[in-house]
Amino acid sequence: MLTGMLEEEVGLAAQVVRLVVAGGSVGSLDTIAQANQYSKHQLALQPIKELDAYCAELGCALPLDIMPGAEDPTNVALPQQPLHRCLLPGSSRCPELVRATNPHAFQLDGVRLLGTSGQPVDDMVKYSQQPDRLAVLEWCLRWRHLAPTAPDTLTTYPFHDRDPFILDATPHVLFAGNQPEFATRMAT
User: Fold this and answer.
1) Which of 28, 36, 65, 129 has a CB 3.0–4.6 Å from the CB of 98, allowing a cystine?
2) pLDDT in tens, 148-167
């Protein structure tokens, strides 16, 4: 649908101006841990190969930003570095592919977007009595801090001079990936 190959969905696909994959693109590493030692290498490489194929197809059809997530092959501490170019050899040739960091901030037609792959929201829900993930995301916006539980319970790189998670400017759109369900809320 996103590549415009479905005739009945061409109008809808034409309205999509950018796709952001907010982590979780490789899948769970549990199946690799349970595999025998001979099949581990093949199981470990298969999700990366599939991700590269999907990104190559989508990245040549529309602008694509791919962010790392909690179980993706990059550093664990936030801010996470982009997925390395050697992991995505086929899709790295696409000029519209952005291997983004987590968190990821960008502008699109004058709209400021900022998001994470969901680790800060997951961590805040784990250590609070608030089950509403949109409320937690709204707290981050009101507190002007993207990861308020860091570094106590959320692993982050140690910064001495500044806190990179402080929101200097309010984004128009704040998002968190890898949540149990899709939901939106307007905050004023």
Assistant:
1) 65
2) 999 999 999 988 899 999 99
